[in-house]
Amino acid sequence: MIDAVPLSDVLLASGALFVIGLAGALLRRSAITIFLSIELMMNAANLALIGYGYALHSLEGQVVVFFVIAIAAAEASVGLAIFVALFRHKETIDVDEIHLLKW
Amino acid sequence: MERLIFDAAAGLAILFAGVMVVHRHPVKSVLALVVSFFGLAVCYVMLAAPFIAAIQVIVYAGAILVLFLFVLMLLNVGQETRGLRRRPIQQVLASAAIVVFAALLLSLLRGHGADVPASVAAEAPGEIAPLARLLFSEYLLAFEALSVLLLAALAGAYVLARREDGA
């Protein structure tokens, strides 16, 4: 492995993915797309963790990513159930239309 | 070679992440994110983490995003209406925040990573046994707590999504 992946490439890719996810979460109005963007940001963090584990010869990064993925699965199921419940009440998942807790 | 494949896969992941954010149709957003996650899985293989890559494909692309698709089909959510922007100031502020954050993050990351020595042939890359040993010894409590969490999420999803009339 003469030209192994340098950490800077991994961090750059991770940062780019995180910024894209942040843009989606802040600018889009469909709740589903916002949720997808949050998943993308989690994956950006995962990539950084794996990259550091690779550069530092540690398995801990992979263990943490394992837990993050499992928690993301739990979070996705509960979040989507909330959307289903919300859609039943409001007939929309546009976050501009959902202002129960906004003034 | 590893670096070449990593950069190509990461570029693919970033490209399709952009497609996901830009697309107005949520189903196409989900499908773009599937491609992005496959690219990330290739990245994980290049970073000597094949087990995580497999999980990425099976759990993320296979289970979580299919769950998204399932809910989208169930709710029959159409295209996001373009509409007139009722809160332009929020859009402007959000865009400014994103730009500032991106500049800060990328300037922070750019100089970073040079001080960490580049990995020299991680011995026995991609072996799962050491990972499993770590997971079931040092992280055993967290692992078991995770199963409780998944059970709680199962119950919570059921309670949230069932009909109100007690069916």
What does this structure look like?
The complex is a heterodimer of chains A (103) and B (167). Helices cover 75% and strands 0% of the residues of chain A. Chain A is an all-alpha fold. Chain A has a single domain, classed as Helix Hairpins (Orthogonal Bundle), CATH 1.10.287.3510. In chain B, α1 runs antiparallel to α2 and α2 runs antiparallel to α3. Chain B folds into 2 domains: 80 residues, Up-down Bundle (Four Helix Bundle (Hemerythrin (Met), subunit A)); 41 residues. By secondary structure, chain B is an all-alpha fold. The interface between A and B is large, with 74 and 84 residues.
Radius of gyration of chain A: 17 Å
Biggest β-sheet of chain A: count, sense, barrel? none
CATH class bucket of chain A: Mainly Alpha
CATH topology type of the largest domain in chain B: Four Helix Bundle (Hemerythrin (Met), subunit A)
Q: What is the SS-derived class of chain A?
A: mainly alpha
The main β sheet of chain B shows up as: none
List the uncertain runs of chain B.
none
Number of domains of chain B: 2
CATH fold category name of chain A: Helix Hairpins
CATH architect. name of chain A: Orthogonal Bundle
What separation lies between the terminal Cα atoms of chain A?
58 Å
DSSP summary: helix tally of chain A: 3
Low-confidence stretches of chain A: none
Strand content of chain B: under 5%
Chain-averaged pLDDT of chain A: 87
The most extensive interface between chains reads: A-B, 74 and 84 residues
How many angstroms separate the termini of chain B? 58 Å
| Overall spatial form of chain B | globular
Give me the CATH architecture of the largest domain in chain B, please: Up-down Bundle
Number of strands of chain B: 0
